[in-house]
Amino acid sequence: MASGARAVRVVVIGAGTSGLAAARTLVDTWDSSKNGGPLELTVLEARNRIGGRTWTLVSEAPAAWNAADALGAPTDMGASWIHGSCPEHPITKIAKALGQTEGGGLVQTDDDSSEVVLCDTGKTPDDDKFDAYESMLEQAQEKAEDAETDKSIWQMLSGRSESGQTRDSALFQYHLATGAEFNTAGPASQLSAWSGFDDEEYEGSEVVWAKGYKTMYEALQSGAVKLNDGSNKVKVTAVAPGSRKPLAVQYGKRIREVAYDESGVKLTNADDGLVYQADYAIITIPLGVLKSSDPRSAVTFRPDLPRVTAEGIRALGFGNVVKVALLFPTVWWPEGTHYYGLAQAGEPDRGLFTYFLNVHALSDKPVLMTFALGSAADMAEKMSDAAVWEAIRTNLMTIFDSNDDVTVPEEMPHMIRSEWRADPHAKGAYTYCAVGTSKDTISAAFGSAVEGRLFFAGEHTSAAYRGTVHGAFQTGQQAARAVVANSRGAPAADSEEEEDD
Ligand SMILES: Cc1cc2nc3c(=O)[nH]c(=O)nc-3n(C[C@H](O)[C@H](O)[C@H](O)COP(=O)(O)OP(=O)(O)OC[C@H]3O[C@@H](n4cnc5c(N)ncnc54)[C@H](O)[C@@H]3O)c2cc1C
């Protein structure tokens, strides 16, 4: 590097998983002699915290939760699970570098430890008909392949399974809500039958962090872990306290305008109108915010984004999932089982507080967590606390109706609810392929840099792993790598999903 070389200015917008992964990767791998100068990194975050849609409640929680160390750990109101945790999983690698393993910092949840009660009989069926659900869903997708146009998965579901299930059966709808609609955040009536389920998965267990996802995002910020550039396998190593390079995140900096041309980027802060100039911007603003015209959220691009990007933003689905964590004075429900469910048909009933995670089975705290899924989620966000508790209590009473040893408490427990749709910096939970969209929509919209200056990252830009923490993490690494390639005068090829071999 020539002495006095100008710094390369990179702004990362957003300090959720993808923004922190991008910033961490840049800091950990930047080579001034090859990249045209030293790195001048700015991380701008609209909120007053890092993590974005990974959000472990600690200090925000009322005293009772802190005192009880709720959930045996703080409470995750965004992502909870490392889906498919296995040695190749990027988030598992972070956990491992931090000394967190299953049984020692990570806690496995068991999908098979589940009791489902039928709403109309109050009884647990001998067979929960999960196999019938899976094969009906597969048949609907096969049928869709022969159709000339894409339709919703709901439209393609038809017929009767060998065991007598139809799309209107209570057990089928229970699995639809707690499976397809939870995994994708997309209501079945809007999920693409062609592409709604074509994302990829890591093969491993479902685990949650005993101390919440903040273990991960705080490590990314503090530099307790070091990342390689992710160009081959993601390598994560632990860093001793004295050698860490923390990321300096600027809080309360909502970007309302992104102006760009081939010479650089200008970003305008919404509150004070301050303009940040940069050579490159990594934009991790969630899809819900990019879609939004709400003045608390809206972002303007000057010039307009390329048509294919704007069209992808418009057409992709951004669904909602509501979490309600309930802290009771004592455990009043039967212990041991991980999940309780209530099978009832119809929208929004099938997804409205019908699925309960027994947090007590994972920790020693008297906590249940329930969810509003599919079309029930947006409705649940608008309900009062009293209405939410009434709906939850009614369902719990049906689930435990036949158990004479159980009495569902009348009094509303301490309750914490997520409101991702109303949140101006999220505007929903996560991305799904709505009818007419596919992996190609995602790759075309976000896979290439705009003018060699704007690099999109975030779960919505991950064709293979959309809607997940690991998808967000990988796209952050890819964006960092693409910025490095551009700074060396060799624009990166269209970004591809990170594959571990
Ligand atoms: C209820 C719920 C449950 C989930 N469960 C799981 C799970 O169990 N496992 C899993 O793998 N995934 C899960 N997910 C998905 C996962 O949380 C997300 O895919 C991931 O966290 C998204 O990371 P991101 O970096 O793309 O976006 P974000 O984390 O949303 O980060 C974007 C950041 O940009 C900031 N921002 C927004 N607008 C601006 C602006 N204009 N200027 C500056 N900053 C801005 C935001 O405040 C935010 O911090 C869940 C999500 C939700 C909501």
Question: Care to describe what's here?
Answer:
It is a single chain. The protein is of the alpha/beta class. It is 27% helix and 21% strand. The protein has two domains: 8-51 and 213-315 and 436-487, FAD/NAD(P)-binding domain (3-Layer(bba) Sandwich), CATH 3.50.50.60; 110-209 and 322-417, Polyamine Oxidase, Chain A, domain 2, CATH 3.90.660. The protein is built from 13 helices and 25 strands. It has a six-stranded mixed β-sheet with strand order 8-20-21-22-19-23, with helices on both faces. The chain has a five-stranded parallel β-sheet with strand order 12-2-1-16-25, covered by helices on one side. The longest helix is centred in the last third of the chain and has 19 residues, at 469-487. The two termini are 35 Å apart. Residues 65-73 and 493-501 have low confidence and may be disordered. The structure holds flavin-adenine dinucleotide. Flavin-adenine dinucleotide is lined by residues 13-19, 44-47, 52-54, 78-81, 83, 253-255, 284-286, 289, 299, 321, 323, 418, 420, 425-426, 429-430, 458-459, 467-470, 472. Flavin-adenine dinucleotide (FAD) binds next to helix 1, strand 5 and helix 13. Residues 18-483 form the Amine oxidase domain. One of its GO terms (molecular function) is polyamine oxidase activity. FAD binds at residues 18, 45-46. Keywords: Coiled coil, FAD, Flavoprotein, Oxidoreductase.
Write a brief structural summary:
This protein has 13 helices and 25 strands. The chain has 501 residues and is an alpha/beta fold.
Offer a few descriptive terms.
25 strands, disordered C terminus, Amine oxidase, 5-stranded parallel β-sheet, 2 domains, FAD/NAD(P)-binding domain, Polyamine Oxidase, Chain A, domain 2, EC 1.4.3.-, FAD/NAD-bd_sf, 6-stranded mixed β-sheet, Amino_oxidase, 13 helices, alpha/beta
